[in-house]
Design brief:
Layout (H helix, E strand, L loop, with lengths): L1 H5 L21 E3 L5 E5 L2 E6 L4 E7 L5 E6 L15 E6 L3 E6 L4 E7 L5 E6 L9 E6 L3 E6 L4 E7 L6 E4 L7 E4 L3 E5 L12 E4 L3 E8 L9 E6 L2
Amino acid sequence: MVKDFLRIPPMRPRVLSVGISRDSACSVDYGWKGLLACGCFSTVIILDPTCAKSVQSLQGHRSSITIVTWAPENHYHDHKNPYCLRLASADDGGVIIIWDVVNASVITEFSEPGCDVVDLQWVQNQHISRDLLFALHSKGRCILWNAQTQMQLWKTNVDESFVSFSMDPFSLKDLLFTGPSVVSVVNNFSLSYPFDEGQKLDVTNYVYFLLVQYPKLHAELLSIALLQLT
């Protein structure tokens, strides 16, 4: 039964080529619908890997796109609140856009003045709202956004050296921040109030983090890959 559950449908290997800005990191996210979102300069391209074709393009950013992330599946929808395939994207101007992918239209657009977007992720494992988006901005600023109303639910500050974060898919309260020489583990993330500064792990004896994240298949585990100085 486990083997059947983990079996991946056969698909021919394909190479998908897109143009990206030399000044921005490659922004790619694979969604639960089996579609691939990719930032191509100031346009988000939606690709279908099964046929290696572009099925949609989202135009609205005025700067190069740095992050794309699919919204989680909305199980609870009806005629009053219809289903919408959503995507969040951020550019190097600090602007975050929430997209209606099917209609290629902008749902909302917002930003934190004077700050770039360093990392971005939808908040899952909760039944309060499907519109919550957690963002790590430059200057160490962390903001929990309501992506539908463009409201900031709360704001706090962390170490400015952090370049990414990972949210535990099994526990809403657990959060990891990573930087060139430090990992911070937060155990009191909440939707109601800002979290306290987490426990820091100094890794100055390592060159850089290759991978640090919560795995999606096993609870209470942490995957960290490090390149150690010799």
